[in-house]
Amino acid sequence: QVQLVESGGGLVQAGGSLRLSCAASGRTFSSPLMAWFRQTPGKERDFVAAIRWSDGRPYYADSVKGRFTISRENAKNTAYLQMNSLKPEDTAVYYCAAGGSSTLAYEYDYWGQGTQVTVSS
């Protein structure tokens, strides 16, 4: 089992920044990737970014490349998502996920509770 706790969401104006955190506990060594997904009402969860625990290699959705940065702090079992140049279309509930090895939400076994990010225009 892996437990994930997210923090850092909130309300920000367009062009602003937020940093999300995801603290993992439990059998974290069993998860190749830590990922972030986001979801808006009535839509599926979309991949945002992922990072490989072993070497820190990042993966990004095209929509966030150049604006978002994913990182991890292995000693704290924590992953971060630094979001810069935010746009209103980035508004969503953001979830961290573990237990998967791709950009597909259904492959992930463990999910955080979600944190709301709202970007005003």
Taken from the alpha-carbon principal axes, the silhouette is globular
Quote the average pLDDT. Answer: 94
Residue fraction in strands: over 45%
Helix proportion of residues, in percent?
A: under 10%
Radius of gyration: 13 Å
- According to DSSP, the number of beta strands is 11
Structural notes for this entry:
The protein is mainly beta and 121 residues long. Helices cover 0% and strands 52% of the residues. The protein is built from no helices and eleven strands. The strands form two sheets. Strands 2, 4, 5, 6, 9, 10 and 11 form a seven-stranded mixed beta sheet that branches. The chain is globular and about 40 Å long. The protein starts with a strand and ends with a strand.
List the helices and strands and how they pair.
Elements: E1 2-7, E2 10-13, E3 18-26, E4 33-39, E5 46-52, E6 58-60, E7 68-73, E8 78-83, E9 92-98, E10 110-111, E11 115-120
Parallel strand pairs: 2-11
Antiparallel strand pairs: 1-3, 3-8, 4-5, 4-9, 5-6, 7-8, 9-10, 9-11
Which characteristics define this entry?
globular, four-stranded antiparallel sheet, mainly beta, 121 residues, seven-stranded mixed sheet, 11 strands
